[in-house]
Amino acid sequence: MPARSVVFFISGHGFGHASREVEVLNTLGEARPDIPLVVRTAASPSLLARTIRVPVTILEGACDTGVIQRDSVTHDDEATVVQAAAFQATMPARGAAECLRLAPFHVGVIVGDIPPLAFEVATQLAVPSVAIGNFTWDWIYEWYREPLRRAPRLLDDIRRGYRQATRALQLPLSGGFDVFPTVTQIPFIARHATRTRADTRQQLGLDARRPVALLSFGGYGLDHLDLASLDCLDDWTIVVTGHTGSSGNTGVGRSKQIHVLPESTFDVGLRYEDVVAAVDVVVTKPGYGIVSECVAHNIAVLYTSRGHFREYELMVAEMPTLLRCRFLDQTALFAGQWRTALEALMQQSVPLGSVATDGARRASDVIQEMHDVGSAPASKSAAN
Length: 384
Known about the structure:
Helix content is about 40%, strand content about 20%. The protein has a seven-stranded parallel β-sheet with strand order 3-2-1-6-7-8-9, with helices on both faces. A six-stranded parallel β-sheet has the order 12-11-10-13-14-15, with helices on both faces. About 45% of the residues are buried. The chain is globular and about 60 Å long. It is α/β, with parallel strands linked by helices and about 375 residues long. The longest helix is centred in the last third of the chain and has 17 residues, at about 360-375. Strand 13 (about 280-285), helix 11 (about 290-295) and strand 14 (about 300-305) form a beta-alpha-beta unit.
């Protein structure tokens, strides 16, 4: 009989869901190469290809609708609710279609981060399922009170899906997990650098004597930010990726203190978490992925607001207990007035105590246990 697979349903919203589940995939695949791994997601294929180190089968397609964004710091609440309601309204049919698509893979366990669709499919296939995340979509959408008037069933429909999960693994900085019947708290799932700080700086051509700030705003970018006008360039080096804050920014190429990393940078063995570990400050909107990596490497965070998003409030409340952080309002961010905030941030003390970031191993152990229990042959007494 073919080996039973573990199927990961991963939200395509942002990079955080995919980046942390890649760590679980890598940990699980290295520990148990006998278990076939399948990924169902709309997340960037290039992100997955650069970071997954074990054999997987990737089945592309949306698992949920997440939050509709105009850019990295602006959301469209109305469109978010409309699209989520339309997706949820077709859930039974979507589940049936997924079951047919997954039939060749002999599914043993389903992991969801954190689309309700994952648990609908698990129920239809009669296999165990585990939710992993730091928030649920119903918890996020609860804040969109006015748009929800036109979708009164949306929250109940999402919760109905979550209640079908066999077990939930709750990450730090979390909300909404009371919907699950069984919940276990686990540490941060975080990507860890594979290179030393000095090696990464040398490879990127960064002056070891200057402080470095990484601009990290995900795939939506901040193209209307004029990097060349920053007031800190005489002292600081600014690193940006090719899709963040550089398109249409004519002054970037003329400044020696702005390093634009093309996408090809990550095709030569360098990983994004290596870059995070090599800088002094990350300038960002708070999200689980980047915050967890800064926690793992003790990197300070200069953050701005990210619009009407419930996770933001939770993170802002908790971050000071985990790392050095400081707020920069969007007016100062886009005006290039960074120097004062950066200098103050570098003077802050590191919070006391260590923070565990081995959640990927803990999640892998749970998934293996669920897989092996479901795959064990029936005993003679049970068969009789």
